[in-house]
Amino acid sequence: MTISQRDTDEHPKIIAIRAGLIEHQTEPAAMSTPAPILTSSTDWHWSPTPFPGVDFTWLRRNPDGGGSALLKLAKGAKLPLHQHPGTEQVFVTAGRLKVGEHVLNKGDHLFIDAHVPHAVEALQSAVYLTLSESDGVELMEPDQAG
Fold first, then answer.
1. Which of 20, 32, 116, 130 is most enclosed, with most CB atoms within 10 A?
2. 69-103 pLDDT tens trace
3. Where would I find the ChrR-like cupin domain in this sequence (predicted)?
């Protein structure tokens, strides 16, 4: 997974996810009204991350960076200490997580400001929605935390 990768095509995309495959279609030039984009739960395409026990699926990539994704963590799985150049929101849909110093249960929401170091650990198998305002992540050594 290239966390800071952005779609660099010249035209915006309409993304349709069907049967686990992502199909890209160039937006018609005459289309002037934005349309809702549905990603059904039966259409999620889970991909592994470089971190054992952590998978993700994009729900929406914003044209200017960032977007929404689901992360699925096995019990005990961890994301190392890191920070983002923009804000991040975390909403737990299943299980229990520790994000930084906060323990989050199903239904909990956490707002993380830009450049705030945090790690993630699954205290139980968990799924969470992350909303990021911009692309990018910087992995940090524990002694770099503010």
1. 130
2. 999 999 999 999 999 999 999 999 999 999 999 99
3. 37-123
Question: Is 21 part of any domain?
Answer: no
Count the helices and strands in the chain (H runs, E runs): 0, 13
**97 and 128 Cβ atoms separated by less than 8 Å:** yes
Closest CA to 113 of 137, 138, 79, 88: 88
* 41-46 contact pairs (CB < 8 A, 24+): 43/17, 43/18, 43/19, 44/17, 44/70, 45/17, 45/20, 45/21, 46/72
For the stretch 95-138, pLDDT in tens is 999 999 999 999 999 999 999 999 999 999 999 999 999 998 99
Domain count, the chain: 1
CATH of the domain at 85: 2.60.120.10
CA atoms within 13 A on the CB side of 27: 16
Residue 61: inside a domain, yes or no?
A: yes
Q: What share of the chain is helix, strand, coil (3-state, %, to 5)?
A: 5, 45, 50
